[in-house]
Amino acid sequence: MRSSDWYLTDDVDEFLARAGEFLRSRPGPHVMQSTWAERVRARGAEAYGTGVPVFGMLERGGEVQATCYRLPPRGYGLSPLTPEQADSLAAHLADLGHPLPSVSADHDTATAFAEAWQRRTGATPRLRDTRLCLYRLGTLTPPDPMPAGRGRALGEQDLEETMSWCAGFADAVGEDVTVDAATWAGTRFADKAYTLWETPDGTPVSVAGLNPLIGGQMQVDVVYTPSHLRGHGYAGAVTAEVSRAALAAGARDVVLFADLSNPTSNALYQRLGYVRLSDWSGYDFSATAAS
Fold it and tell me: What is the pTM of this model?
């Protein structure tokens, strides 16, 4: 496979026009490519950093077979690749002299690319401690019994508390971002629809976010209960409610990521009807060895 089969562009509209059908063919594994391309299309690249975004596709015989993307200073995100496809992408990026701080993808793809990048450049890959699992909703099975209270959509009066909870979520997952009133509009948290679980007296106790509908799929992204409120079933209740909201909004597929080091959340999502699709990994790279 030739490295020249890969094509890179900074034009997100061109990328979506050429690769959209491919992305929709497997919406679960392609969730990150679809989500970030749509975010850039809707809000502009400047909303997510100062670097120029890069979107790539592997085309053979006029057919897209794989994709990648990068929003500097972040690393590359990859669709599922065979070892041969991973090697051809590594060769292409190395030939272009592209700097590469990291890569993330399903575990097999990320590992194949990390090994290819090391062969091509001499950079040493380091597997990140945080490993994720991608789940897809099968048949929604709400908790029985549900905790006392009800789910409801976020109201304007809830925004300040929700920003605080999103900041807590970001901190818990190791995301280096400031989430407050001054920065909210520029974060990835601002484009979500939120569902709250509240107790019978109207006190919000848990929150779940939902990304916009893209190609018939919605991603549950942010499930958070403050530490002093955990252990009452609120996370299960709010996840069931936000999943129900996604289906009501027309989603054919509903997906979410869970930290593999947290057996509680993984068991919870499976009880709710989520089925494991793939493990997800990231590698950070040392400086390229001198030639």
Answer: 0.93
Q: What is the DSSP letter of 50?
A: S
Q: What is the mean pLDDT of the chain?
A: 93
Looking at residue 184, its amino acid is W
Q: What is the pLDDT of residues 88-100, one digit of tens each?
A: 999 999 999 988 9
pLDDT digits (tens, 9 = 90+) for 46-97: 777 678 999 999 999 889 999 999 999 889 999 999 999 999 999 999 999 9
Length of the chain: 291
Residue 52: C-alpha distances to residues 13, 35, 196, 259 (Å): 14, 17, 36, 30
Q: How far is CA 40 from the centre of its chain?
A: 14
Regarding beta strands 217-224 and 253-259, do their DSSP bridges make them parallel or antiparallel, or are they unpaired?
Answer: parallel
How buried is residue 284: exposed, middle or buried, by Cβ count under 10 Å (0-12/13-18/19+)? middle
Amino acid letter, residue 85: Q
At residue 285, the 3 state secondary structure works out as strand
CB 232 within 8 A of CB 217: no
Question: Of 49, 95, 134, 117, which Cα lies nearest the Cα of 284?
Answer: 117
Measured distance CA(90)–CA(165) in Å, rounded: 39
pLDDT confidence of residue 156: 87
Q: Helix, strand, or coil here: 223?
A: strand
Task: Please provide residue 134's backbone torsions phi and psi, each rounded to the nearest 5 degrees.
Answer: -95, 125
CA pair distance 127, 238, nearest whole angstrom: 32
Q: With residue 124 as reference, give the H or E element that holds it.
A: none
Which two three-digit tokens encode residue 92? 């292409």
- Do 195 and 207 contact (CB within 8 A), yes or no? yes
How far apart CA 188 and CA 47 sit, in angstroms, is: 9
Q: Which two tokens stand for residue 175?
A: 């995301």
